[in-house]
Amino acid sequence: MIKKSVPHFFTSLNLLSGCFSIYFAYIFQFETAFIFLLAGVFFDILDGLFARMLKVESELGVQLDSMADMVTCGVAPGIIMAQLFVMAGNKPMEIIIGWPLNAVVEFIPWVFIGFLIPLGAAFRLARFNIEGAYKNYFIGLPTPAMAMFFGSLPLLLRQPDFYFLQSVLISNPGLIFLTLIFVLLMNAKFDLFSFKSLKTGILDSFLRFFLVLVAPVLIYYFGLGGISLGVLIYLFLNLINNSFSK
Questions:
Q1: CA 140/CA 118 separation, integer angstroms
Q2: Whole-angstrom Cα distance, residue 169 to residue 175?
Q3: Tens digits of per-residue pLDDT, 78-130?
Q4: Angle, to 10 degrees, between the axis of helix 30-53 and the axis of helix 143-157?
Q5: 75 touches 103 (CB < 8 A)
Q6: DSSP letter (8 states) at residue 57
Q7: Average pLDDT for 52-68
Protein backbone atom coordinates (compact mmCIF):
# COMPACT_ATOMS: atom_id res chain seq x y z
CA MET A 1 0.00 0.00 0.00
CA ILE A 2 2.80 2.43 0.91
CA LYS A 3 4.65 1.54 -2.28
CA LYS A 4 1.59 2.35 -4.40
CA SER A 5 1.24 5.72 -2.67
CA VAL A 6 4.77 6.95 -3.48
CA PRO A 7 3.97 8.17 -7.05
CA HIS A 8 0.70 9.73 -5.82
CA PHE A 9 2.67 11.62 -3.17
CA PHE A 10 4.87 13.28 -5.81
CA THR A 11 1.86 13.91 -8.06
CA SER A 12 0.20 15.70 -5.13
CA LEU A 13 3.32 17.82 -4.67
CA ASN A 14 3.14 18.66 -8.37
CA LEU A 15 -0.46 19.86 -8.02
CA LEU A 16 0.27 21.87 -4.87
CA SER A 17 3.30 23.48 -6.53
CA GLY A 18 1.03 24.53 -9.39
CA CYS A 19 -1.42 26.10 -6.92
CA PHE A 20 1.40 28.04 -5.25
CA SER A 21 2.66 29.16 -8.66
CA ILE A 22 -0.81 30.50 -9.52
CA TYR A 23 -0.98 32.42 -6.26
CA PHE A 24 2.39 34.12 -6.71
CA ALA A 25 1.68 34.89 -10.36
CA TYR A 26 -1.57 36.52 -9.27
CA ILE A 27 0.39 38.97 -7.07
CA PHE A 28 3.01 39.56 -9.81
CA GLN A 29 5.83 37.72 -8.02
CA PHE A 30 6.90 36.01 -11.23
CA GLU A 31 10.22 34.63 -10.02
CA THR A 32 8.63 32.79 -7.09
CA ALA A 33 5.80 31.65 -9.35
CA PHE A 34 8.32 30.20 -11.78
CA ILE A 35 10.27 28.42 -9.03
CA PHE A 36 7.10 26.65 -7.92
CA LEU A 37 6.27 25.86 -11.55
CA LEU A 38 9.71 24.27 -11.96
CA ALA A 39 9.19 22.36 -8.73
CA GLY A 40 5.91 21.02 -10.11
CA VAL A 41 7.61 19.86 -13.32
CA PHE A 42 10.33 18.19 -11.23
CA PHE A 43 7.75 16.36 -9.12
CA ASP A 44 5.96 15.34 -12.33
CA ILE A 45 9.16 13.64 -13.50
CA LEU A 46 9.59 11.92 -10.15
CA ASP A 47 6.07 10.50 -9.99
CA GLY A 48 6.49 8.77 -13.34
CA LEU A 49 9.99 7.63 -12.45
CA PHE A 50 8.90 6.03 -9.18
CA ALA A 51 5.80 4.51 -10.75
CA ARG A 52 7.98 2.68 -13.27
CA MET A 53 10.72 1.77 -10.79
CA LEU A 54 8.27 0.37 -8.24
CA LYS A 55 6.05 -1.14 -10.96
CA VAL A 56 2.92 0.47 -9.52
CA GLU A 57 1.62 2.28 -12.61
CA SER A 58 -2.17 2.56 -12.45
CA GLU A 59 -5.12 4.20 -14.16
CA LEU A 60 -5.65 6.34 -11.05
CA GLY A 61 -2.07 7.56 -11.32
CA VAL A 62 -2.52 8.43 -15.01
CA GLN A 63 -5.65 10.49 -14.34
CA LEU A 64 -4.23 12.18 -11.26
CA ASP A 65 -1.05 13.03 -13.13
CA SER A 66 -3.01 14.73 -15.93
CA MET A 67 -5.05 16.75 -13.45
CA ALA A 68 -1.91 17.92 -11.67
CA ASP A 69 -0.25 18.79 -15.00
CA MET A 70 -3.34 20.76 -15.98
CA VAL A 71 -2.89 22.97 -12.92
CA THR A 72 0.90 23.34 -13.03
CA CYS A 73 1.47 23.36 -16.79
CA GLY A 74 -1.87 24.71 -17.94
CA VAL A 75 -3.56 27.07 -15.51
CA ALA A 76 -0.35 28.52 -13.97
CA PRO A 77 1.15 29.71 -17.30
CA GLY A 78 -2.31 30.95 -18.29
CA ILE A 79 -2.42 33.15 -15.18
CA ILE A 80 1.10 34.42 -15.92
CA MET A 81 0.03 35.35 -19.43
CA ALA A 82 -3.12 37.04 -18.11
CA GLN A 83 -0.98 39.12 -15.75
CA LEU A 84 1.28 40.11 -18.64
CA PHE A 85 -1.79 41.53 -20.39
CA VAL A 86 -2.36 43.62 -17.27
CA MET A 87 1.28 44.78 -17.39
CA ALA A 88 0.75 45.75 -21.04
CA GLY A 89 -1.29 48.69 -19.75
CA ASN A 90 -4.80 47.48 -20.57
CA LYS A 91 -7.41 49.35 -18.57
CA PRO A 92 -10.34 47.64 -16.85
CA MET A 93 -13.89 48.14 -18.01
CA GLU A 94 -17.02 48.11 -15.91
CA ILE A 95 -20.26 46.24 -16.49
CA ILE A 96 -23.29 47.05 -14.41
CA ILE A 97 -25.35 43.98 -13.53
CA GLY A 98 -28.88 44.72 -12.41
CA TRP A 99 -31.31 42.54 -10.56
CA PRO A 100 -30.74 40.21 -8.75
CA LEU A 101 -27.08 41.07 -8.12
CA ASN A 102 -27.17 44.86 -8.48
CA ALA A 103 -23.39 44.90 -8.76
CA VAL A 104 -20.64 46.48 -10.81
CA VAL A 105 -18.16 44.00 -12.34
CA GLU A 106 -14.74 45.37 -13.23
CA PHE A 107 -12.42 43.34 -15.47
CA ILE A 108 -9.87 43.56 -18.30
CA PRO A 109 -11.22 41.69 -21.36
CA TRP A 110 -7.74 41.13 -22.81
CA VAL A 111 -6.70 38.85 -19.94
CA PHE A 112 -9.10 36.17 -21.17
CA ILE A 113 -6.83 35.61 -24.17
CA GLY A 114 -4.25 34.25 -21.73
CA PHE A 115 -6.70 31.52 -20.77
CA LEU A 116 -6.41 30.04 -24.24
CA ILE A 117 -3.19 28.53 -22.89
CA PRO A 118 -4.89 26.22 -20.35
CA LEU A 119 -7.49 25.42 -23.01
CA GLY A 120 -4.75 24.35 -25.43
CA ALA A 121 -2.99 22.44 -22.66
CA ALA A 122 -6.21 20.57 -21.82
CA PHE A 123 -6.56 19.35 -25.41
CA ARG A 124 -2.85 18.40 -25.48
CA LEU A 125 -3.10 16.40 -22.24
CA ALA A 126 -6.37 14.74 -23.25
CA ARG A 127 -4.92 13.63 -26.57
CA PHE A 128 -1.83 12.34 -24.76
CA ASN A 129 -4.04 10.21 -22.48
CA ILE A 130 -5.89 8.74 -25.46
CA GLU A 131 -2.95 8.12 -27.78
CA GLY A 132 -0.43 7.17 -25.10
CA ALA A 133 3.22 8.12 -24.77
CA TYR A 134 5.76 7.72 -27.53
CA LYS A 135 9.08 6.47 -26.21
CA ASN A 136 11.46 8.21 -28.60
CA TYR A 137 9.63 11.43 -29.40
CA PHE A 138 6.73 13.76 -28.63
CA ILE A 139 3.93 14.77 -30.98
CA GLY A 140 3.40 18.46 -30.37
CA LEU A 141 5.18 20.59 -27.81
CA PRO A 142 4.88 19.02 -24.33
CA THR A 143 2.94 21.14 -21.84
CA PRO A 144 5.90 21.35 -19.38
CA ALA A 145 8.06 22.95 -22.10
CA MET A 146 5.29 25.46 -22.89
CA ALA A 147 4.83 26.22 -19.18
CA MET A 148 8.54 26.76 -18.64
CA PHE A 149 8.65 29.16 -21.60
CA PHE A 150 5.86 31.38 -20.28
CA GLY A 151 6.98 31.02 -16.68
CA SER A 152 10.49 32.25 -17.45
CA LEU A 153 9.54 34.88 -20.06
CA PRO A 154 8.91 37.72 -17.56
CA LEU A 155 12.30 36.96 -15.97
CA LEU A 156 14.07 37.07 -19.33
CA LEU A 157 12.55 40.44 -20.19
CA ARG A 158 14.00 41.87 -16.98
CA GLN A 159 17.50 41.16 -18.25
CA PRO A 160 19.26 44.29 -19.58
CA ASP A 161 20.08 42.52 -22.86
CA PHE A 162 16.38 41.96 -23.51
CA TYR A 163 14.88 45.29 -22.40
CA PHE A 164 14.31 46.17 -26.05
CA LEU A 165 11.82 43.29 -26.36
CA GLN A 166 9.55 44.54 -23.59
CA SER A 167 7.73 47.05 -25.79
CA VAL A 168 7.27 44.37 -28.47
CA LEU A 169 6.26 41.36 -26.38
CA ILE A 170 4.52 43.07 -23.46
CA SER A 171 1.89 44.44 -25.81
CA ASN A 172 -1.43 43.10 -27.01
CA PRO A 173 -0.18 42.02 -30.47
CA GLY A 174 2.96 40.40 -29.03
CA LEU A 175 1.12 38.53 -26.29
CA ILE A 176 -1.66 37.40 -28.64
CA PHE A 177 0.94 36.09 -31.09
CA LEU A 178 2.80 34.14 -28.40
CA THR A 179 -0.41 32.69 -27.02
CA LEU A 180 -1.71 31.49 -30.36
CA ILE A 181 1.60 30.12 -31.62
CA PHE A 182 2.18 28.04 -28.48
CA VAL A 183 -1.39 26.73 -28.43
CA LEU A 184 -0.83 25.60 -32.02
CA LEU A 185 2.58 24.11 -31.22
CA MET A 186 1.12 22.02 -28.39
CA ASN A 187 -1.53 20.54 -30.65
CA ALA A 188 0.31 20.35 -33.97
CA LYS A 189 1.30 17.05 -35.60
CA PHE A 190 4.94 17.95 -35.19
CA ASP A 191 7.54 15.45 -33.95
CA LEU A 192 9.95 16.62 -31.24
CA PHE A 193 12.78 14.56 -29.85
CA SER A 194 12.50 13.28 -26.30
CA PHE A 195 15.03 12.61 -23.56
CA LYS A 196 13.17 9.49 -22.44
CA SER A 197 15.17 7.30 -24.80
CA LEU A 198 18.65 7.69 -26.25
CA LYS A 199 18.21 4.88 -28.77
CA THR A 200 17.59 7.10 -31.76
CA GLY A 201 19.55 8.34 -34.76
CA ILE A 202 22.88 10.14 -34.79
CA LEU A 203 21.31 13.52 -35.57
CA ASP A 204 18.80 13.19 -32.70
CA SER A 205 21.59 12.29 -30.29
CA PHE A 206 23.76 15.19 -31.45
CA LEU A 207 20.93 17.72 -31.11
CA ARG A 208 20.07 16.46 -27.63
CA PHE A 209 23.72 16.68 -26.61
CA PHE A 210 23.92 20.22 -28.02
CA LEU A 211 20.84 21.31 -26.08
CA VAL A 212 22.24 19.83 -22.85
CA LEU A 213 25.43 21.84 -23.37
CA VAL A 214 23.73 25.11 -24.27
CA ALA A 215 21.03 25.13 -21.56
CA PRO A 216 23.39 25.65 -18.57
CA VAL A 217 25.18 28.44 -20.45
CA LEU A 218 21.88 30.26 -21.02
CA ILE A 219 20.94 29.92 -17.35
CA TYR A 220 24.41 31.11 -16.29
CA TYR A 221 24.18 34.30 -18.36
CA PHE A 222 20.46 35.07 -18.13
CA GLY A 223 19.38 33.36 -14.90
CA LEU A 224 16.14 31.42 -14.89
CA GLY A 225 14.97 33.61 -17.76
CA GLY A 226 17.40 31.69 -19.98
CA ILE A 227 15.06 28.69 -19.83
CA SER A 228 12.65 30.41 -22.22
CA LEU A 229 15.52 30.76 -24.69
CA GLY A 230 16.27 27.08 -24.17
CA VAL A 231 12.70 26.19 -25.16
CA LEU A 232 13.02 28.28 -28.34
CA ILE A 233 16.31 26.56 -29.18
CA TYR A 234 14.63 23.19 -28.55
CA LEU A 235 11.96 24.10 -31.09
CA PHE A 236 14.56 25.33 -33.60
CA LEU A 237 16.64 22.14 -33.24
CA ASN A 238 13.54 20.06 -33.90
CA LEU A 239 12.83 22.12 -37.01
CA ILE A 240 16.30 21.18 -38.23
CA ASN A 241 15.80 17.56 -37.22
CA ASN A 242 12.48 17.27 -39.05
CA SER A 243 13.91 18.96 -42.15
CA PHE A 244 16.73 16.42 -42.43
CA SER A 245 14.52 13.47 -41.52
CA LYS A 246 12.21 13.97 -44.47
A1: 15
A2: 6
A3: 999 999 999 999 999 988 887 777 888 888 999 999 999 999 999 999 988 88
A4: 160
A5: no
A6: -
A7: 86
